[in-house]
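Figure 2 data, in text form.
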Amino acid sequence: MESQLPNDADQAALNLLAQQGLDMRSPIDFEFAIKVADDRGGQIVVDRLKQLSLGVSYELAYDPGELEEGEEMTESNREFWPTWTVYVERRMIPDYENLIFFQKLLKEACGDFGRLDGWNAEVR
């Protein structure tokens, strides 16, 4: 009996990496983004991730957004608001189960202070 691969964004991205020639049996560097409300929440998330040794590097980054001078923040321009993001890098085999398990660990570590906002990996 053949096992069915999941049909979700994570599996689609892994499939794309494989199509680009990535050796899916060798560890690669993944970068996970975690959106946080502010620098305080971001530092709490970084401290928790470090305490649990969930990555090889951690960065808290601020993006000032792209609102025009004097422009108010409204729901219609939310994508241009300032944001805080924690980036955590983890080296692991690009396997669906590994990826899902690690994202679960990140979500648990973040608690109410952050939400997972995707990942990326480069084929070298």
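Caption note: The chain is about 30% helix and 25% strand.
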